[in-house]
Amino acid sequence: MKMISNFRSGLLMAGTMLAICTTLAQAHQEPAEAASGPNPLADKVRAVNSRFVDVKAAVSEGYAPIPCASGITGGAMGIHYVNGQYLKDDKIDIARPEAVMYEPMADGTLKLVAVEYITSKGPASLDGQLFNFNSAPNRYGLGEFYELHVWAWKGNPTGTFADMNPKVSCEHAMALSQ
After folding, report:
1. What is the CA radius of gyration of the chain?
2. DSSP assigned state of 120
3. 101 near 53, Cβ under 8 Å?
4. Nearest in space to 75 (alpha carbons), one of 166, 172, 171
5. What is the pLDDT along the chain (178 residues), one digit of tens a residue?
6. What's the whole-model pTM score?
7. 144: alpha, beta or left, given left = phi > 0 and alpha = psi -120 to 50?
8. Are the C-beta atoms of 150 and 44 separated by less than 8 Å?
């Protein structure tokens, strides 16, 4: 009898946890969907950084590529072109992102999808949008830092400021190195 009671208690606990997780997941998804619509900060970023539509502009301003970054559960960030000088200065300037992100296309071209702002000073924000904190050690081999992705050229169903974009792929990155 005690075993049945424990089993029922376990089922009740599991059901309660499932309901809580479902509620939290739904609550977490709603802002992300809203964030993928029109966004004043994304509009500003797009306006002041449109010169990077051509990757040659990024290269001429001192940006260098690092390998395409894919997510473990799908999606990607694309190929980051990083400006080492901007990384070192810790300044946040909307017109000088630390990284410019491109999606490699099947025809070998790169399509601008986003920019990333990075600083070691925080908590950081840009026009009221808080940056994400990354502790050390991390996969980048950097100390602690704050970062903000802005998906200004390619919509992101997980949110304008999410790290990974399920609509971006590194599938064609190898074509660029061949």
Report:
1. 20
2. S
3. no
4. 166
5. 554 444 344 333 333 333 333 333 333 333 333 344 579 999 999 999 999 999 999 999 999 999 999 888 889 999 999 999 999 999 999 999 999 999 999 999 999 999 999 999 999 999 999 999 999 988 778 889 999 999 999 999 999 999 999 999 999 987 554 4
6. 0.76
7. beta
8. no
